[in-house]
Design goal:
Order of helices and strands of chain B: EEEEEEEEEEE
Number of strands of chain A: 11
Largest sheet of chain A: 7 strands, mixed
Distance between the termini of chain B: 40 Å
Structural class of chain B: mainly beta
Oligomer: heterodimer
Largest interface: A-B, 29 and 22 residues
Shape of chain A: globular
């Protein structure tokens, strides 16, 4: 158990819809990173939030957006869902943006039909 | 761009040592990680090594780094059935900020 919790655990959405995924970081951690893991692939970095600001972004389009709240929890929002957005979405928290260790949650399995 | 490569599968007998290999291309990689993922689960951090180290040992796990060849390996001694999982190699120039992962190595344990 890492103390990083994600909700919901599973979700089914229709193409074109919007989705919001949530992550509560481990106690004492102020940085949250989001990753997308397609089936049979390694996780790919979406973006990181540090002190409520985006602090680095991977190669994902603007329809992937996020928020971090004062309690350091975070949301990942995806607009105009596409079939290829079907994946496991993982959240990782760390003590600060350049901390050595990142601890992952169990993930949210998103299926787009 | 950055790239991390791993073999897709490794099969070993229970009790033997497992060696999982990884190569990376980013010469600015400072932190190199090994994560474990069991079916239906998130990622568990196993160990990490800084690029100024050659080796790190932690109980049954030994990490070897050849920085010249950009080659990282994870050795699991006395492999057990509970070690069956997917093992991901990851690198970052900046610690936990934006890891680049390989596709993972499925470790299969034979009785």
């Amino acid at each position: 158990e890492t103390g990083v919790t994600q909700s919901p655990t599973h979700l089914i959405k229709t193409r074109g819809q919007q989705v919001t995924l949530r992550c509560s970081s481990q106690s004492g951690h102020n940085t949250v990173s989001w990753y997308q893991q397609a089936l049979g692939q390694g996780p790919q970095f979406i973006f990181q939030y540090y002190r409520e600001e985006e602090n680095g972004r991977g190669n994902f389009p603007p329809r992937f957006s996020g928020l971090q709240f004062p309690n350091y929890s975070s949301e990942l929002n995806v607009n105009a869902l596409e079939l290829d957005d079907s994946a496991l979405y993982l959240c990782a928290s760390s003590f600060y943006s350049r901390d050595t260790e990142a601890f992952f949650g169990q993930g949210t399995r998103l299926t787009v039909v | 761009g950055e790239d991390v490569e791993q073999s897709l599968f490794l099969s070993v007998r229970e009790g033997d040592s497992s060696v999982i290999n990884c190569t990376y291309t980013d010469s600015s990689s400072t932190y190199l990680y090994w994560y474990k993922q069991e079916p239906g689960a998130g990622l568990q951090l196993l160990t990490y090594i800084f690029s100024n180290m050659d080796m790190k040992q932690d109980q049954r796990l030994t990490v070897l780094l050849n920085k010249k060849d950009k080659h990282l390996s994870l050795r699991i001694a006395d492999t057990q059935t509970g070690d069956s999982a997917i093992y991901f190699c990851a690198e970052s120039p900046r610690g936990a900020d934006g890891l680049t992962f390989g596709k993972g190595t499925h470790l299969i344990i034979q009785p």
